[in-house]
Specification:
The complex is a heterodimer of chains A (257) and B (579).
Chain A lengths: L3 H5 L3 H10 L4 E9 L9 E9 L5 H11 L19 E4 L2 E4 L5 H4 L2 E5 L6 E3 L2 E2 L2 H8 L20 H6 L17 H5 L6 H11 L7 H9 L12 H5 L6 H14 L3
Parallel strand pairs in A: 1-5
Antiparallel strand pairs in A: 1-2, 3-4, 3-5, 6-7
Chain B lengths: L1 E5 L2 E4 L3 H11 L4 E5 L15 E2 L10 H11 L6 H20 L14 E2 L5 E2 L4 E2 L3 E2 L5 H15 L3 E4 L1 E8 L5 E8 L5 E5 L2 E4 L20 H8 L4 E2 L4 E8 L9 H4 L3 E3 L7 H4 L9 H13 L11 E4 L5 H7 L1 H11 L8 E10 L3 E2 L5 E4 L4 E8 L4 E2 L11 H23 L11 H12 L6 H15 L6 H18 L13 H25 L17 H4 L1 E7 L5 E7 L13
Parallel strand pairs in B: 1-12, 2-3, 2-13, 3-9, 13-21, 19-22
Antiparallel strand pairs in B: 4-8, 5-8, 6-7, 10-11, 11-12, 14-23, 15-18, 16-17, 17-18, 20-21, 23-24
Helix pairs in contact in B: 1-4, 1-11, 2-3, 3-11, 5-15, 13-14, 13-15, 14-15
The chains are: A alpha+beta (257), B alpha/beta (579).
Amino acid sequence: MASSAEVLQGSDAREVRARNDDHAKVAITVKIRRFNPEISQDSWWDEFELQADPLERLVEVLHTIKWHHDGTLTFRRSCAHGICGSDAMLINGRNALACKVLVADVGAKVTIEPIRGLPVLKDLIVDMEPFFDGYKTVLPFLINDSGEPEKERLQSAEERERFDDTTKCILCAACTTSCPIFWGDEGYIGPAAIVNAHRFIFDSRDEAGRERLKILSEKTGVFRCRTTFNCTDACPRGIQVTKAIQEVKRSILFDRF
Amino acid sequence: MVTTHTYDALVVGAGGAGMRAAIELSDKVRTAVVSKLYPTRSHTGAAQGGVCAALGNVEEDSPEWHAFDTVKGGDYLTDQPAAQLMTEEAVEAIYQLERWGLPFNRTPEGRIDQRRFGGHTANHGERPVKRACYAADRTGHMILQTLYQQCVKRDVRFFNEFYCLDLLRDADGATAGIVAYELATGELHVFRAKSVVMATGGYGRMFRVTSNAHALTGDGPAVAWRRGVPLEDMEMFQFHPTGLAKLGVLLSEAARGEGGIVLNKDGERFMERYAPTIKDLAPRDMVSRAIYQEIKEGRGAGPNNDWAYLDITHLDPKVIEEKLPDITEFARIYLKVEPTKEPVPIQPTAHYAMGGIPTDLDGRVVVGPDEVPIPGLYAAGECACVSVHGANRLGTNSLLDLVVFGRRAGVDAARYAKEAELVDVPERPVADTLTVLNGFLERETGENAADIRKELQDNMFDLAFVVRSEEGLAKMQEILAGLRERYDHVAITDKGSVYNTELMETVELGYLLDCAEALVISARARTESRGAHYREDHPLRDDANWLKHTLTYRNDDGSIRLDFKPVKMGPYVPMERKY
């Protein structure tokens, strides 16, 4: 086999990495919308200018600010690699996870705000309770009253594939809080809840699809969706959110799933 | 203001072990789960490759073979009855998850599909066996979601973004409850309960390169340690061979299970030299050490010659797309490397704590060589030490541990809560907590917690990582004493009550310092090499003197006492660990 070192020679990626290791940092201006109810009822903007590695994650840039410039800067984060769903933010006008956006992806200036449509509690932290309340209304758990087999329930690979996309959801709220209908209408259940309903409606082992479709056909449900595709663009897991919503709509209209 | 709550049972932590325990408890007694993260943010969700059980869906297998592999993988520090129990209960535990809706990948017959994983073999080491049940490379995500769904179904009471700051015990040592800090308001809460299940996860954040989430700061072990509970086998920390270079983000062993190989800078598949039978599927400690050896002998890759490569370019793109989608994406996003076309730069990453709060097979926390239970106190998952992983955990056995022993802890904690009386909390239960918090809040100037944390992580990476020595560990212990001294003078800038994450990060740093101290002292004491604990000054395993667990206690004056207890043996006689 070819030497791996040779394989990498000349690749752009290697150059980027080499620059990174030489600490070829770049200047970045980070503009952040701040809010602290203990100081003021109004939000304000702060700007921080710092040096960062091009391959650094934005969440680590936020850490640099918090740990060395302003300890009061407040945001949620945990896994820092796009799995836990803690750090959804509005980054240069688009919802994304701060741990899946690199400095090189945003250029010399980045604007960070809290995700929209949920009450801001402090800086980049929003109240997640309304989001999880919406999720809970769609019966987000397997319902099957036909008795339990001794071993596993059988499911073909094709049946499993049918709902694969919506099992990826990490409940980060990036989709729901990118939706203009959700911003304007407090009743709308939002894309993430529909995604999680889809995950069970199209699972061959589940028996409560009709019940969920009934919930989603109500006035707070899927027909509020105006197919703007913001949710699909926002999903850090690459879920075809709008497609899932359309599939749920079709199931309601044709009573088929 | 302090609010007091009273429950029959409390679970601290809402990852896999905590929620599995909560499911058992909430059906039987009044239960609350106190967690510093929203449940679905827990790090169980980051586990990728699979969860092992000898279902035999793809090829012949048996729980007994799985038990043997677990004991051998643990380099015979594993308590053999725990391994036997876990591997026997594994089968039903997996079926239970499936019946709760976990979307496992399927065989052509519609059964749960299984694949190979490091150290899991047929017939006592003959050949690799397909034992890992999986859902693409998101098995942990699916377990976490499934358990959360079952908690929603049962309407389990969660107190989210509440940090556990103290364990309360009465004058006789029985469990009385915990003190928690509500992040949203800065208020302290006393939770009284008859049984408390600690399920707070690991403490990999003490190392510079780690696969662990920022939240993994050893809260449960540290809080318990400060209240007289020993910590077991703290020197046993697993370094996973395939972390993304520099970042430590995990690239699942499933990549090797599907046929991926590890290369040095010359493109050589060097594991053929270290483990001729199962090669790249050797257990993690061996592969990590082999990488260090390659680096030491000048065959390390990368700009500083301290990396290796994970190569999956020869795999069918369909296999990569269907079975390894997430880790492929990690390489693309974070290193701008295309894994289907070029090898991915990797380095060993701090991954998993085998040690922790000592428990028996029912999750009861036990003290000393005689294993005297602390009434009402339980632990499960990574923060606990059963000890089923011994000196080196096999891949997939962590997810199995948390569903098997999370369930068992929940069952016994419910039994205890039904039988026992609520005991009194100490007078002024939050006094000690307030002293700590007020110190940070009231000091106007002082040390920066982030600087201390960075020095901790850098030095632990240099001195207490894959290769250790008396010299390095002694130096580390000295450094820790200095960091601890500075920690007592930390000042923070956020003096507020609302979402003061700076205050909680500072508290978490204190937990990390405690866990690091226990780790270093245990590692200095163990003058042999076993599993993940490799001492270059004592490179051989020493069964005559060291078939025993370390127990580390913190005395009231802050000094540390070491004790030991024998490994519980069984059918498997220690032999040289070759693969």
